[in-house]
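Chapter summary example: a protein plus DP6.
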Amino acid sequence: MISSMTERTYHTELQSEAASFKPHSGGVVTGTAAWSCPSNIAIVKYWGKREVQLPMNPSLSITLREAVTRTHLEYRFNPEIRKPGLTFRFGGREAPGFGQRTRTFLERITPFMPWLRHTVLRIDSENTFPHSSGIASSASAMGALAICLVAAEASIVRPEASGDLLDDPGVLKKASFLARLGSGSASRSLFPGLALWGKSDVWPGASDEYAIPVTGFHEDFRDMRDAILIVESGQKKVSSSAGHALMEGNPFAASRFGQARENLEQLAPILREGDWPGLIRVLEEEALTLHAMMMTGRPGYLLMLPQTLAILQRVRSFREETGCRIGFTLDAGANVHLVYADGDAFPSEGFIRNELTRFCENGRVIHDRMGTGPESLI
Ligand code: DP6
């Protein structure tokens, strides 16, 4: 009871801020916000949720650099407007599916951003990475939109404020909170390096409502690489939302949530000390458990393909033979993310090229690395 009360503190704070919202005397405000936000790959996975987008266990991810969504938002706030408006374009074209998801998201966040009721929005968005490529596009898309909306809010609610938006630490916290309501993993995309979402006793400041940056990790983990091996680029057979829902009837769910908590606790010293073998152990255990949860749901399902398994086995043999600091992880799909040390990039990339691309669709591999978080585009 006490913990669920403290968990909802920020939610309540935002609601009472919203209740006191009054349009400023100037009336109409028009403006533009444009931000890029990266995707992320989880080391400890979020899999299973409750209420509105609250995680069953804490998760921790690497923020990527190259795989980003760029969102351009034009807004026109007018207290006289009684019905909000939205035009949504993706990659320069009308995108009804994404538009509908955005509309649902905006309705969900309006209690925390009451000015949205009187605003017409025009959103243009694009990704730097291909659709269905095994990179979580909802994470970067919801992250970019959330930070654009926080920027718009600053000019509508506090037109007198000046300076860099990111100078205010509250900005990323609110953007992360909002992004979470669009897609859970998006909450983690707002921070550079590593980010943690979900309450954990060993990580001060961690919350179920928003993610926080993980600081103080060892320099051997800086600039970690992530090569994404595209085994299959098609639409996923079972969506993440359906997968989260299936955790409810999964007989192993409770022990899985406990395992994630334990892995997070173990990560604290691993990250501080630069313990690559420790990191790889957690990374691979989490990937395999994520898929074990899919297989043991009711009904169970399989997203790995024979090529996925061939890659995982070869990665383990290569590591044993060479001692390279490289490990695998998986998202909710057949594609494989290989996380490796910057210092082992040369042998690891040679191995990927010579031994693994043949298991990939058209030999496709996307090379990414740890990134620095959202950036303003204007
Ligand atoms: C396997 O964040 O896509 O990538 O909250 O329903 O949008 P929703 O789910 P989503 O789930 C991501 C699951 C995962 C693991 C992770 O990123 O932690």
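Key point: The chain has two domains: 9-217, 223-369.
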